[in-house]
Amino acid sequence: MLVCSLKAGFPELYRLAKNKEALVSDHLQSHNERVSWDFNFTRHAQDWELEAVASFLELLSSSSVKGYGEDRLCWRGSSKEGFQVRTYYKYLLPADGIVVPWKRIWKTKAPLRVAFFVWVAALGRILTTDNLRRRNVIVLDWCCMCKENGESISHLLLHCSAAMEIWSFMFDIFGIQWVMPGWVIDLIACWGNSCHSIRIRKVWDMVPPCVFWCI
């Protein structure tokens, strides 16, 4: 049984999906109580992707789908204790073992709304233009600050030329050399290990949330 989302379990097939926000009903076809699937990929699967397609179909065939009737909620996480938020949260965690370093987000002296913004950024949920376009919002995919590249979260907060000026200024203040990681979550994960001075540790931990919020 798959204990994560289909997006996380089959990332190579998710990239082929033409409509990444489609519902099950958009792909499910039922005729004379016989169920079939139409995935509507952007292209035909390549040879090296056929194994993933076969596993995907095997997973779908293991689920009983009638193709008619009303939807209903059911919980299969813990039959003995019933529904629990903590169990549900574990199922929502990425299957590849990536865990958001929440202590380095919520345990700083940053205001709650700033910490929440950093949390959402680490999860990749900020409404940048690339995320808006995934939700079928018609908007130009360009960075509002540098106007040179598409606006993703990592570009906007880390790699944009305007953002890099702010980061470079902060690094000069602390007198350190820094190689910017690819993602916000990676920056947060390695940030706390980069300062060995207890005296300035609290100030150092405030740098990412302050820079993110200013940007």
TrEMBL record:
The lineage of its organism: Eukaryota, Viridiplantae, Streptophyta, Embryophyta, Tracheophyta. It comes from Fagus sylvatica (Beechnut). This is Reverse transcriptase zinc-binding domain-containing protein. Residues 83-167 form the Reverse transcriptase zinc-binding domain.
